[in-house]
Amino acid sequence: MFDVKSVDEALTIIENNFKDYKLDYELTSIDEANERILCQDIISEEDIPSFNRSTVDGYAVIASDTFGVSDAIPAQLNIIGEIKMGEKPSFVLKQGETCYIPTGGELPSNADGIVMIEYTENFDDGDVFISKACSPGNNVVYKGDDVVIGAKVIGSGTLLKPQDIGLLAALGYSEVKVKKKLRVGIISTGDEIIGISEKPIGSQVRDVNSYSLYAIVQTSFTTPVFYGIVPDDYNTLKEVVEKATVECDIVLISGGSSVGQKDVTSDVIDSLGYPGVLVHGIAVKPGKPTIIGKIGEKAVVGLPGHPASAFVVCNIFITHLINTMLGISKRSIPKVNGEMASNYPSNTGREEYLPVRVEKEHDRTIIYPVYGKSSLISILSKSNGYIHISRGSEGLNKGQLKEVVLWK
Ligand SMILES: Nc1nc2c(c(=O)[nH]1)N[C@H]1C(S)=C(S)[C@@H](COP(=O)(O)OP(=O)(O)OC[C@H]3O[C@@H](n4cnc5c(N)ncnc54)[C@H](O)[C@@H]3O)O[C@H]1N2
Ligand code: MOO
């Protein structure tokens, strides 16, 4: 029978048991490194930029040459050359001199500011009139302003974002060490479950969970693996779970998680090794029969068979398990705030994760609860997120503000 844990207890048990999970690293080229977990500190071996650079198209000046100038009283400076992109200037500016410089060009020695071309007039006689004063540092990015040599710019454990990939490119990294992908095995159990290309006979049903779970756990840092449909038979299930546990880091088994005569998932997990089942039963709606197990260092989880329950539990607990095993502390979760479109009664004694459809209507964001039993598949498809209702709550009132977590 169940020994029901609260949601917080279950999440803590996941953290305590899987936070030290060890996963090897692999070298990957940076074009494949987005959303992978970095396994090294990135220390800059260079200053960026490596030279003092203009941020505008204009004329490089010694700022003091322009002090006090205006439209009425411009400064007249002698043009001694032109800066070419990618080339080191071959001359040095002296007082009263200037040179044309494009955006991104290197400042000649002594220049300490750039006047934008809009504030200059060039009469093609070798001189230019400057009608705007420039302070030292105007329109200049100095050597090392962006990244200074020796700085730690990205820490080990970071979930790399496109912005980080650009920074790695700037620093000259073509490949980096990242954590290997977490392998997540997926098994569906049930004598009545058939493949999706088959036609159901009698009370057979097509396998929904393998596919929805696959879609949820599929990320750039995981590799989902199908292990197929297994009948409600202890020995057959044990054989498949054992193989999956060897080959994967996490094994998800949907169905057979409850306490019926044919529900063997819990016994199978316990039979495979130490410590076995850690949690069987969570005070959550849907998902009460959820099983969290550990075999050696691997996670073996039993999800409820009802497709909507498996979906919700996977989103809440398996996402947390994956983050914990990979050491991801910051994974941004898209959320929106909205107001309830109607009352929603809830006093189940369990925390509830209610699928909702959240919609922008003019300047308001409205949350529509998606009603239906957790055995219904189509209801989830109508939702785009969920709201969390705490255990002691009596329900929600029309107009009440709530936070919606959007499905992946
Ligand atoms: N005596 C009790 N019975 C049940 C309880 C309880 O507390 N006491 N909890 C109920 C809840 S809540 C849920 S959720 C279910 C979970 O049961 P199982 O995990 O054992 O799931 P099954 O019995 O194997 O299947 C339930 C239902 O889902 C269909 N199913 C299963 N797998 C799939 C799949 N891959 N694709 C599509 N549909 C699937 C299956 O045909 C059943 O209709 O237990 C309650 N019972
Ligand atoms: O937890 Mo069950 O998942 O309520 O249907």
UniProtKB/TrEMBL annotation:
Keyword Nucleotide-binding: no
Entry GO MF terms: metal ion binding; molybdopterin molybdotransferase activity
InterPro entries: MoaB/Mog-like_dom_sf, MoaB/Mog_dom, MoCF_biosynth_CS, MoeA-like, MoeA_C_domain_IV, MoeA_C_domain_IV_sf, MoeA_linker/N, MoeA_linker/N_sf
SUPFAM superfamilies noted in UniProt: MoeA C-terminal domain-like, MoeA N-terminal region -like, Molybdenum cofactor biosynthesis proteins
UniProt cross-references to Pfam families, sorted A to Z: MoCF_biosynth (PF00994), MoeA_C (PF03454), MoeA_N (PF03453)
Substrates-to-products reaction catalysed: adenylyl-molybdopterin + molybdate = Mo-molybdopterin + AMP + H(+)
The keyword DNA damage is assigned to this record: no
Gene3D superfamilies: MoaB/Mog-like domain, MoeA, C-terminal, domain IV, Molybdopterin biosynthesis moea protein, domain 2, Molybdopterin biosynthesis moea protein, domain 3
GO BP: Mo-molybdopterin cofactor biosynthetic process
Signal peptide: none
Involved pathway(s): Cofactor biosynthesis; molybdopterin biosynthesis
Keyword annotations of the record: Magnesium, Metal-binding, Molybdenum, Molybdenum cofactor biosynthesis, Transferase
Any one cellular-component term (Gene Ontology): cytosol
Domain annotation MoaB/Mog: ranges: 185-324
Needed co-factor(s): Mg(2+)
EC number: 2.10.1.1
Family per similarity comment: Belongs to the MoeA family.
NCBIfam families (alphabetical): Glp_gephyrin (NF045515), molyb_syn (TIGR00177)
Task of the protein: May be involved in the biosynthesis of molybdopterin. Catalyzes the insertion of molybdate into adenylated molybdopterin with the concomitant release of AMP.
UniProt xrefs under PANTHER family: GEPHYRIN (PTHR10192:SF5), MOLYBDOPTERIN BIOSYNTHESIS PROTEIN (PTHR10192)
Protein name as it appears in the record: Molybdopterin molybdenumtransferase
Lineage summary: Bacteria, Bacillati, Bacillota, Clostridia, Eubacteriales
